[in-house]
């Protein structure tokens, strides 16, 4: 774990029989805190670029899968999302020059969390709040290391009684669990197996479900 980052917490998960997964759980500054939110995005890119190069505070094996997930509060300037996807650091004096953040020197990808039962992609809604519904919760990932199979947002309040019954849900389950809707990503990722018994790991695909 690397607890020193501001409002984000990277954890290297040891998946038995598999390559490790770096998951960074984040809750960036809200509302009009544009500078703080940009600094948090810059710090994340600095961390990931450090992780992919020898030396510094963290070194990861090449092509270690990584995901940034959480309530990123991207309600203001688009530069913050641009930084997270493309590595375009703004505060270079503090966080360095930046660079493309995926293992193959390309931008990262993100889950577009369309809802299961509504043609919308917002992940937060409060009809008693002055803010309109918004896409606040993100899963940003290394598409060089893992493949997104499916991604969606679950808002049980808009599901029909039939659909709720199929999945064993209640109409108020979403907001009882959290004030944000669950965002789910299913990923194929490499695991280490020895199918032929020769003692040498074979790289095969497996599926991991990530819930934000």
Please tell me about this protein's structure.
The structure is a single chain. The chain has 212 residues and is an alpha+beta fold. Helix content is 20%, strand content 25%. The strands form two sheets. It has a five-stranded mixed β-sheet, with no helix packed on it. Helix 1 runs parallel beside helix 2. The longest helix has 18 residues. It is globular and about 55 Å long. 29% of the residues are buried.
Task: Note the topology.
Elements (H helix, E strand, L loop, with lengths): L7 E6 L7 E7 L6 H18 L14 E6 L7 H8 L5 H4 L13 E2 L26 E5 L5 E7 L7 H7 L5 H5 L5 E11 L8 E10 L1
Parallel strand pairs: 2-3
Antiparallel strand pairs: 1-2, 3-5, 4-5, 6-7, 7-8
Helix pairs in contact: 1-2
| Strand order, sheet with most strands | 1-2-3-5-4
Poorly predicted ranges (pLDDT <50, ≥5 residues)?
none
Helix share of residues? 10-25%
Number of helices: 5
In short:
With 212 residues, the protein is an alpha+beta fold. It has five helices and eight strands. The two termini are 19 Å apart.
Task: Please name the defining characteristics of this protein.
single chain, 212 residues, alpha+beta, five-stranded mixed beta sheet, 5 helices, 20% helix
């Amino acid at each position: 774990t690397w607890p020193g980052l501001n409002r984000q917490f990277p954890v290297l998960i040891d998946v038995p029989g598999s390559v490790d997964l770096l998951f960074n759980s984040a809750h960036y500054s809200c509302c009009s805190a544009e500078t703080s939110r940009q600094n948090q995005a810059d710090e994340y890119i600095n961390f990931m670029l450090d992780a992919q190069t020898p030396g510094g505070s963290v070194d990861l094996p090449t092509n270690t899968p990584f995901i940034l997930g959480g309530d990123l509060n991207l309600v203001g300037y688009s530069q913050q999302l641009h930084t997270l996807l493309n590595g375009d650091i703004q505060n270079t004096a503090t966080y360095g020059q930046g660079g493309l953040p995926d293992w193959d020197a390309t931008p990262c990808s993100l889950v577009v969390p369309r809802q299961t039962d509504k043609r919308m992609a917002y992940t937060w809604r409060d009809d008693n709040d002055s803010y309109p519904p918004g896409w606040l919760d993100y899963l940003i990932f290394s598409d060089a290391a893992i493949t997104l199979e499916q991604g969606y947002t679950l808002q049980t309040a808009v599901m029909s009684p039939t659909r709720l019954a199929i999945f064993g849900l209640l109409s108020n389950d979403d907001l009882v669990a959290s004030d944000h809707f669950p965002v789910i990503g299913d990923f194929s990722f490499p695991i280490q197996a020895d199918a032929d018994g020769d003692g040498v790991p074979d790289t095969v695909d497996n599926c991991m479900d990530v819930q934000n």
